[in-house]
Amino acid sequence: MTSPVPSSSPPANARAEFLKVLLGASISGGMAYLLIRLLQSIVAHLPPIALDGPVFARNISVAVRYLLVGSIGLMAFMFVMVAVGLTAYIGQLVWQGFVGKAVSAPLENSLEREPPSRDAEPETVDGTQSQPQKQD
Hints:
There is one protein chain. The chain is an all-alpha fold. It has two helices and no strands. It has a domain at 14-102.
């Protein structure tokens, strides 16, 4: 078995991830803006539905309008939610850049410890092995 290839240095990797997330949020936000503008344009320019025509034609007109407006609205909502999520992730990355270095060191040290085996004696609060109690 081969050992895994070490990744690039953490600052370069974190910067690359930040830029990827920023690019994704920008693209998603741009797509959401374009879809919302398209939705507004479609709603403004669709002719009103004639109520005096045949029922079948009116039903098809209503169905096409709902499908068109609904699908574009759903796509716009999806891109808005992706942009909001990625923007929140950018905030988390920035926060970790300021505070995370001090917080992650104790967490990494606690993850490096091996879990106790089933046969091992339980540890006390100060980390020493507890002594079994003698029963008379």
